[in-house]
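Field reference: sequence -> structure
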Amino acid sequence: MSKKRIAQVGTFDVENYGDLLFPFIFKHYFLDYEIDLFSPVGGGNFLANKEKVYGIKDLEKKHLERKYDAIVIGGGDLIRVDSFVANTYNEKIINTLSLWILPILIGKKYNIPVLFNCPGVPYHFKKFERKIIKMLLDNVDYLAVRDEHSRLLLEECDVKKITVFPDTVLSIDKIENKEKLSKLKKELEKKKKIPEIDNYIVFQHSNINVNSSYINEIKNLLNLIIKEYKYNILLMPIGYVHNDIDFLNEFKDVNNDNIKIVDEKLNPIEMLSVIASSCGYIGTSMHGAVTSYAYDKPILLINTDNLYKRSGLLKTINREEVEIKNIYSIVKIFKEHFFDKTNKKIKSDIDKQINNHFENINKVIKAKSKKVDDNFDFNLIVSMFDSLSKINYEDEQNIINVYFDFGNDFNAFDCKRVKLEKKDNNFYCKIDIPEKVKKIRIDPFEGVIVGYKNLQLKSKDIDLKYSIPNQYFLVDKYYIFSTDPNIYVDVNSSITSIDFSIDLEILSNHKIVDVLNNLVKLEEYKLMYESTIDYKLRNIIKKFLGKK
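Structure field:
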């Protein structure tokens, strides 16, 4: 009797530690299945066993050859509608919609169960996107996400039957034991792939744009660890795709034997051996913290850019006190909480939940009939087209998002949704400014392209200076050719509120090209339209149906 076959979908073709561990974990729990991997582009050979990864465009063709019994999507932050997946992808070739919508459509067409393996949901969906998200996800057979925040974002879309299970990499210690990993670490030292080092704490950081005082604060911490706590520091990149090594080179010191750096590229299991053999982990990588926690090592998770997935992990493991939201608190939090003991009961419960999750997937696959619906009439696709044609952008017109920069750039946590008053095409509101804000960013009607005139930003009857990227003047008004229009305003301590008013027109996505036809640089601005959910969904569906 031949084995059942699974198509597993995720970003397995990029050099990113956590993404490359997902298929390794999944395969361990489904040894009785043949598993083929699919990713945005394919290839890569970054997995520890150099396993073949197919491009997502080949999924339907491979199913006709191999007859998959299930399509499994995840993990990672995959349920999203933006274009950005990773720096290495060409956005013209792939976007996040293709990564999970195509598998749902193929599953629907061939009656293959579609299951989600605890991915995350990184962003709120806009009102005009929610009906489409619900329509898609209500057509899957099993929907598990990795934290409560992801569940809430899907519940905003009225998606039904969502379950929450911990990130599956938290079970890695049940697959690779410490003794085996310790031997691997020694082998890496002998082969000169990593420096010889003991009694060390791993430090990692993604290459984000920060100032010199931010870097100095980290240097203060590393010096404290070396001098007062008598540990060595091993600088190890985890996300090559995020250019970790560029940031870590800021801390490289050839004259200091207590700080060493991993210069050679490691595969994910080799990285795992370094973390599991360490005395703790400090960094920005969620899965660096996940694996350190799994092997009962201390962690400090830097989250100055306020990503939900990091805070969601710390809630799952009940370690919220080790989150670094402000880099200037890192030394204090290290001293107070880095060496806190792990709650073994919580870890045991997490392991049970992950086992239950994989058992659920197995049950769904075995229970689903493999019969193909020869009369499949693309009702789901027809409904999606119908939803796109009825998108009401007026729903977005009564709210703007205002982001506050307190010195660490803009982020989703420091955001206020402000209700607008409306008279004809004129919108206005008052924006209260918190103390210690350096800049504000106003996002008028995210997800749409707008034209405007008579924009005013005043504080105590004084006109404030502002800047707007990607705007162009045409006939009698400005047009902002971006689906995420931003207005940047510098503020000072004397400004406590801003009066905002604008005469604004929202262009529904399918009419945007009509405006662009009046511009000289037509091809350049068509790319703006091609970033909209309207264009991307229509394009994906047309390709799926074989239409031009």
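Note: DSSP finds 17 helices and 25 strands in the chain.
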